[in-house]
Amino acid sequence: MDIILTGATGFLGTALCRELKENGHTVTAIIRPESSEKAEFLEADNRVVLPLNNLEQLSGNYQVFFHLAWNGSGGEGRNDYHTQLENLIYMEKALEAAKNCGCHKFIGAGSQAEYGVIHERTTEYKTVPAPSMMYGAAKLSCLHMGRVLAEQLGISFVWPRIYSVYGPRKNDPTLLGYVARTLRAGKVPELSSCENMWDFMYITDFARAMRMLAEKPETEGIYHIASGKTGKLKHFVEQLRDAVRPGIELGFGMKQTDPNRTFWLEPDVSRLEALGFQCMTSFDNGIWNL
Q1: In this structure, what are the phi and psi dihedrals at residue 128, rounded to the nearest 5 degrees?
Q2: 71: burial class by Cβ within 10 Å (0-12, 13-18, 19+)?
Q3: What angle do CA 123, 272, 288 make, to 5 degrees?
Q4: Could you tell me if residue 194 is inside a domain?
Q5: Does one domain contain both 114 and 176?
Q6: Which domain holds residue 90?
Q7: In a domain, 275, yes or no
């Protein structure tokens, strides 16, 4: 298939481009002008340098449109109203671009943050979302408004709700990245109690799941993109310690967190597995690449 996507130079987008190319698809990457240097080694057939606010200028002939680009996905921007509001406009522009380019399917990039803090197993069409930050609220808004707009435009709308994806990356800002760096430096990672449930998915499994959403003609609506292998975050951190620096102390409880704002990741992945998807990289194996 001919596939076009935004967010191609990010951690997730780079892996998705590689996965699509390796499986015979033709990939066109939309690159923001400020990210053009990152695209030098991107595995894509075509590159189009274009700001997100000009997406409606796109034309061509494609089958699937992936929209992964997002402003304010980390740091203080996650709770900034105006930053997150812009993403809703970009969603509309991406859908209009998909229509202009002849796409029959649009695949966005949702987040587990749409649920807020829920201490139970989450299911796509049973668990009621209650986002606790602007980032999650904006993602949820893009789901609802994007779905309606896609229906008006006559395009199939798929919303992968992405959980915690890990893998080798430069200056890894995630908890696993912090723990690995700190341990290698011979220091004690300062952590919360890490008693909350978590789900980690390796980056190549993520990319394969997203490819399947594009390839399977029946995909529609929300899908949890996660491994389904949940456990206490504390146990995952201990596994990482045992791989990187066995026996070193871990600073559980050194940081205090608000339980009402601490995520609890325990997704039901039966909809994804019904497509024939199974993770191929266990956490035990994936952490060796951090």
Answers
A1: -85, 120
A2: middle
A3: 105
A4: yes
A5: no
A6: 2-164+201-225
A7: no
- 100 plus 136 within the same structural domain: yes
Is position 272 within any domain? no
Contact 243, 288 (CB under 8 A): yes
pLDDT tens string, the chain, 290 residues long: the values are: 999 999 999 999 999 999 999 999 999 999 999 988 888 889 999 999 999 999 989 999 999 999 999 999 989 999 999 999 999 999 999 999 999 999 999 999 999 999 999 999 999 999 999 999 999 999 999 999 999 999 999 999 999 999 999 999 988 999 999 999 999 999 999 999 999 999 999 999 999 999 999 999 999 999 999 999 999 999 999 999 999 999 999 999 999 988 888 999 999 999 999 999 999 999 999 999 99
CATH number at residue 183: 3.90.25.10
Instruction: For strands 26-31 and 2-6, give the pairing.
Output: parallel
User: For the chain, first and last CA: distance in Å?
Assistant: 32
Tell me the CB-side half-sphere exposure of residue 92, using CA atoms within 13 A. 8
Task: Look at residue 259 and give its three-state secondary structure.
Answer: coil
